[in-house]
Write a structure and sequence with these properties.
Helices cover 52% and strands 11% of the residues. The protein is mostly helical and 143 residues long.
Length: 143
Amino acid sequence: MSDHGVLRPGPGRSHRRYGLVYGPAALQAAARGDRLIWALHRAALGQGFVPVVPAVVVLDAARVVGTDPDLASFLAGTEIEALDAAHAFELGVLGQAAGADNPSTIAVVECAARRMVAAVTARSPGTAELAGVLGHDLVLHPV
């Protein structure tokens, strides 16, 4: 298992959310200059939270918006979570178990569950199933 380690359900997990993980829809909204996502981002940073973006989500968003300067500025205030081979394999197995086929959705839900943070992204097929496989009560802020 990689250093990330796919979250395993367990007793005593806190249900508090002290951060955010952004999905592709959040990054696309930032690139469009969406005021709500920028306000949420500034508020998180102002509270000392550094939002997390799985690397595969950056790939997914860049595929849609390209090299947008607003996206680059938005990402400058985030932690990009790397994806090594071991973690990628674990995410693939998780996706298979939940019947999910979107790598970004898998990465966002797993990251939110492991870090116990809220996810900011679009609703997509498999989101609830992924959270269920992880035994996680996902807090989702749809964009």
